[in-house]
Design goal:
This protein is α+β, with helices and mostly antiparallel strands and about 750 residues long. The radius of gyration is 28 Å and the shape is globular. Strands 6, 7, 8, 9, 11, 12, 14, 15, 19 and 20 form a 10-stranded antiparallel beta sheet that branches. Helix 5 packs parallel to helix 6 and helix 12 runs parallel beside helix 13. The longest helix is centred in the N-terminal third of the chain and has 34 residues. The termini are far apart. It has 14 helices and 36 strands. It binds alpha-D-galactopyranose (GLA). Alpha-D-galactopyranose binds next to loops. The site of alpha-D-galactopyranose has 11 residues, from loops.
């Protein structure tokens, strides 16, 4: 090394030391005050290193870092296992690869605009009024307040701004990102793709993608595939979340990760309209997930001064496997997302009349069912479809929200009073966003549905979608719902939504604004629910979309529970619920016990098996109680009373998936209560062949030296000794006596002092 080389190494060393000193100073500033105020002491934080223009985000186990590079771009640096702020140096763009992949493309940006030779998936794509179609975003300034960071970027030429928002949720291990795109120019700007975030994973991992797909009656199928070079798109173009794919992803390492070990990067989008995730692996080994509004048929014209806010995209990282990724999301939903968070109220045991009566809903029939339900220990009675308008089947009446006078001659009040006398509260089915063409509403307002003038209106389940983007339609829906809830003592609305969009036209809007329907509809839907809930604070809502076609963390902010699938067959439900809980908490997962042979697939499973499958979520009953035998009623009463002892653990506890119904004919789940005092295990044998014995079940997440008193729901636990230690349960494991087809058991362990 020559003298110049020595001098420059020395300079680099001094620079590094100086940076470390600054960082040490900053850390002292942050952590010393924590000594006197434990609440302010969360390790989760966002730190700004001024000199180097670096932001270091600590969120749970993860560190996330980015900075401003020499071109002024916001460049991603790191997302993974914990690193200290002192471990980072300044940000430099990456070299290009020959003349084909320019540095713009090889340098991972936090929010890349399409321009300057960017060939990877952009977060923003637009057309300016003068026909220019590129946007190159540079850092302008930022505001950091506690756990909220807003960074402003600006196009290098025009006054087009992007305000990136980052939020850390202390104690939850989740980083939220979104963007607000602001038109500061004096002309309209047309947005063609507006994403919430671009998430960059470490380069060169051998990655595997997990995602959820499905269809009606077959939602929540977990898919796993190796990520190859190219783009993998999962999306909904349906106007709502959809059951074909759910806006959740988890990416792990092929050889390192399983249910309880190894790195996982995961996230979900809080949006109930069309969405898209583009998971991209470049030929040079980069991996990113870009997600937000679906750019398909997207066109959002921003008038001068106008902004568009993208949905929140929540993400996290863990080194403890896919099970932990789910647990982080569950906790986050319970503590930050659901109505009533951080302590959303427990779900009552519910009865729903749909499978029993379908559209033959009337006062006498519902009262008879209510009496039987209350004897079993049910706490909430829900009248499903068929109570309103001329709704005798799915061909008519939707949209006419008056109580059918033939079925309920005295209105709903006598039934509601009877339900209350029986010690239950009352729920009611509605489908506010839809209309049957054979309805008074449609006859009066044929223009209220989304449509392309002069073109046919395609029906699904004989219904059309009301255009909630129109403010008059929004107000109409709000006002009848408000009246319905004000006039009747309704504890729960089951809010259904039974088809996806066709002809998404909005002819009343200016042609250049008509595509805003994709965004405005969902914003107005949220507005209706938000106002309704604030006017009726005790009202709860179940989100339903012909099953689980609209479940996402945007909806979960507004509904207390969801209906995962119209498929209530207990065996199918094991897989459906396994997929569902990858992304969403069992707290919201409604699960009913219904009659056999099951209406969807004709399968007959024993009532005990049906109950235990349903008890792994929020328990409901949906069978025709008029036909239940004394023996069935006895099983039901026993199961419901057991469920009430464990429901807080199931709904709000910590879920461990001990065995997968996808991989084996034997599966099991375990829940540990938040205070770790109660543990519940459910085990299911789908079908036994060749008399094979059951695997030993090793419990997880217990204190080794704690003692637990054991109460099994039946005699299928071999190790029934009264008390067992945490070490025994985890290391030795328990043995179960399950046999034949559709056998199941549940065991409760209560910690003894
Ligand atoms: C949808 C729901 C069902 C039921 C019916 C009523 O299919 O998913 O639970 O409410 O509508 O029409």
């Amino acid at each position: 090394m020559n003298a110049n080389g020595v001098a420059s190494s020395l300079r680099a060393l001094l620079e590094r030391l100086r940076l470390r000193a600054i960082l040490a100073f900053l850390l002292v500033q942050i952590f010393v005050p924590c000594l006197s105020s434990p609440l302010a002491c969360a390790a989760d934080s966002i730190v700004f290193v001024e000199k180097e223009k670096l932001w270091i985000v600590q969120s749970g186990e993860a560190t996330y870092a980015f900075g401003v590079n020499e071109r002024g771009e916001l460049q991603h640096l790191y997302w993974g296992k914990h690193m200290g702020a002192q471990d980072f140096t300044s940000t430099h763009s990456l070299p290009g690869w020959a003349s084909f992949d320019l540095s713009t493309t090889t340098t991972p940006q936090e929010y890349p605009g399409w321009g300057a030779g960017l060939y990877t998936e952009p977060a923003l794509k637009l057309t300016l009024a003068n026909g220019n179609r590129e946007v190159v975003l540079h850092y302008v300034d930022h505001k950091l307040e506690d756990n909220d960071l807003e960074i402003t970027l600006k196009d290098e030429i025009s006054a087009l701004y992007v305000h990136l928002h980052y939020r850390v949720y202390p104690g939850n291990g989740i980083l939220e990102r979104s963007a607000r795109i602001e038109n500061g120019t004096s002309d309209a700007v047309s947005l063609e793709s507006a994403q919430s975030a671009s998430w960059t994973l470490p380069q060169d991992g051998s990655y595997r993608l997990h995602y959820l797909t499905g269809r009606w009656a077959g939602e929540w199928q977990l898919q796993t595939e190796r990520l190859q070079v190219g783009k993998r798109v999962i999306e909904s173009r349906r106007g709502s979340t959809g059951n074909e794919a759910n806006p959740w992803f988890a990416i792990d390492h092929v050889d390192e990760t399983d249910e309880s070990h190894g790195p996982v990067w995961f996230g979900e989008l809080g949006w109930s309209g069309s969405w898209r995730f583009t998971i991209e692996r470049t030929p040079s080994g980069q991996c990113r997930v870009v997600g937000g509004f679906n750019p398909f048929d997207f066109g959002y014209r921003l008038a001068p001064g106008e902004s568009l806010q993208t949905p929140p995209f929540y993400a996290g990282f863990t080194d403890a496997g896919l099970g932990e990724a789910s647990r982080i999301l569950h906790r986050f939903q319970l503590e930050r997302i659901l109505p009533g968070s951080p302590h959303p109220p427990l779900r009552p045991v519910l009865y729903n009349s749909w499978e029993a009566t379908e559209f033959n809903t009337d006062e006498a029939g519902q009262m008879a069912l209510a009496e039987k339900a209350s004897r079993l220990g049910v706490e909430r009675f829900v009248v499903d479809d068929g109570w309103f308008g001329q709704r005798n089947n799915d061909h008519s009446g939707l949209g006419d929200w008056y109580v059918n006078p033939r079925k309920f001659p005295h209105g709903l009040k006598p039934l509601i009073e009877r339900v209350h006398q029986l010690g239950m509260d009352f729920g009611l089915w509605v489908e506010p966003e839809m209309v049957n063409p054979d309805s008074d509403l449609y006859r009066a307002h044929p223009d209220w549905v989304m449509n392309f003038p002069g073109r046919p209106r395609t029906e699904g389940r004989n219904q059309l979608v009301l255009n909630l983007a129109r403010d008059d339609v929004k107000e109409y829906i709000f006002s009848w719902l408000d009246r319905l809830v004000a006039d009747n003592d309704i504890a729960l609305l089951k809010w259904d939504y039974n088809r996806n969009w066709s002809e998404p036209g909005w002819p009343e809007a200016a042609p250049a604004d008509q595509k805003k329907i994709w965004v405005r509809y969902v914003q107005n839907l949220y507005d209706i629910i938000d106002r309704l809930r604030s006017r009726h604070p005790r009202l709860q809502i179940e989100g339903c979309s012909g099953g689980g076609a609209r479940v996402d963390s945007g909806m979960l902010r507004r509904v207390d529970q969801v209906w995962p699938s119209d498929n209530t067959d207990a065996l199918d439900r094991l897989t459906i619920q396994y997929g569902f809980t990858q992304a969403y908490t069992p707290h919201v997962m409604m699960a009913w016990v219904t009659d056999v042979p099951n209406g969807i697939d004709g399968r007959a499973t024993p009532i005990g098996f049906r109950f235990l499958v349903a008890m792994t979520g929020s328990l409901g009953i949906g069978g025709n109680l008029n036909k239940w035998t004394d023996d069935e009623n006895a099983v039901a009463s026993k199961m419901i009373s057991f469920y009430k002892q464990i429901r807080a653990t199931v709904q709000d506890g910590i879920l461990f998936r001990l065995g997968s119904p996808i991989e084996s004919d034997f599966s099991a789940v375990q829940y540990v209560s938040q205070d770790s005092h109660q543990v519940v295990v459910f085990a299911f044998l789908h079908s036994q062949q060749f008399g094979r014995s059951m695997p030993q079940l090793h419990l997880r997440g217990l204190a080794e030296d704690a003692m637990y008193s054991v109460s099994a729901i039946d005699d299928k636990l071999v190790d029934q000794t009264g008390k067992l230690s945490g070490a025994y349960l985890m290391h030795h494991g328990i043995r179960l006596r399950l046999r034949g087809d559709y056998d199941a058991t549940a065991i409760k362990f209560d910690r003894v002092r």
